[in-house]
Amino acid sequence: MPPVRASLVIVSRHRTETLLRCLTAVRQLDHTDFELIVVADPAAAAAVRALDLPLKLVAFDEPNISAARNAGIAQAAGEVVAFLDDDAVPEPTWLRRLTAPFADPEVSGAGGWVRSRNGISFQWQAGTVDRLTRPAPMAVPGGRVSLHRAAPGLAVEIKGTNCAYRREVLCRLGGFDPGLRYYLDETELNMRLAAEAALVAVVPGAQVHHFKAGSRQRSARRVPRSLHDIGASTAITLRRHGASAEEIAATRDWLHRGERIKLIRLMVEGAIEPRDVGRLQRTLDAGFAQGQAEALPPMLPLPQGPAFVPFPAGPRPGRVLAGRIWQAADLRARAASCAALGEIVTLIILDPTPRHHWQHYDSRGFWEQAGGLFGRAVRTGPKVRLCAFRDRVVQEQQRLSENRPISAET
């Protein structure tokens, strides 16, 4: 069966370096029928233009991720529109797997799993969210796609850094609410899908790695600079979905308590000063008040984009390089050379310790996993395992082969 034709939208603002790394990984996707739409600030747009790739480029420099995504949707001509954050990196199989469920005409949306900063643990798998923005976990099978019928007032939550929607549905609903400049942008859209009892796919095999780079809202260490937009977006979403005055007040208190717990934890860790707790909570309260007072413009349908522009991607051969920590510099240089020749390269570097493993995507175009020969990769595994170097490399190859092409270690 041919892949579902897709438009991939990536929004970036003032993070040119992470955007270019993301685009390097996008060029390694094995999907054979998609177009790429980049919505970015002028400096990043210039850097992307210099790559001389066949893509649709939209210059946009407002601190509003919803409006930026809508600008991307307006350029989309694929049957499905997928979204990826600029500080995320997709596995080579990501887009093909994420869009495959749309072969079923009933499917309106799909979301994949998101790996955390260490590249191995999961930051997000599956969940629901109710009309008062309260999330809950959702049990799904880990080894296959599962379909879930949303219900009015209870949405299937799929995350903006790893999601896709049928373009016809997305445009009819008006895309993302531009009143939500940051936070709850995809959640609110998922609620509108739920109002239509939409069928949503959860796709465990469609995986991205999310590194949460610094932004206007938070530092690179994930310390909040302001909670204003979180408060505003929460209040707007509640109003959009018919919450009563009592429900809005109760949710405001619930949000206030939850954010205070996070701030106190950051204070104990030394990431913020005691005075920052009150200051940041005041920004939350001010944002919530603004969200209660703002007008709620109607969500108008979005236009279909101009002609489809195929992006050059498709399956590539895989290669694994493995060695000891003292060989790291030479191995990284070799990995970069192989990636430049068009291979999907996984580099495994082991040291003689029980150190936990981590994994990241190098901006030169290869994946690197490093850690102790006797340490654990998957955090639920044993803390220490005794094994030979060759056996450990084979074990990691088998685990990684679920998401990318893997050849024998060389």
Features:
3 domains; 410 residues; four-stranded mixed beta sheet; 17 strands; 11 helices; 24% strand; Spore Coat Polysaccharide Biosynthesis Protein SpsA, Chain A; ten-stranded mixed beta sheet; alpha/beta
Return the CATH architecture of the largest domain. Answer: Alpha-Beta Complex
**Number of distinct beta strands:** 17
Please, what is the oligomeric state? single chain
Query: What do the pLDDT scores average to?
Result: 95
Q: Given the C-alpha coordinates, what overall shape results?
A: globular
- Total number of helical segments? 11
Element-level helix/strand string: EHEHEHEEHEEEEEEEHHEHHHEHEEEH
User: What is Rg?
Assistant: 22 Å
Q: What is the end-to-end distance?
A: 34 Å
**Low-pLDDT segments, ≥5 res:** none
CATH fold topology of the largest domain: Spore Coat Polysaccharide Biosynthesis Protein SpsA, Chain A
The amount of beta strand, in percent, is: 15-25%
- Based on secondary structure, the structural category is alpha/beta
CATH class of the largest domain: Alpha Beta
- CATH homologous superfamily assignment of the largest domain: Spore Coat Polysaccharide Biosynthesis Protein SpsA, Chain A
Largest sheet: 10 strands, mixed
Query: What share of the residues lie within helices?
Result: 25-40%
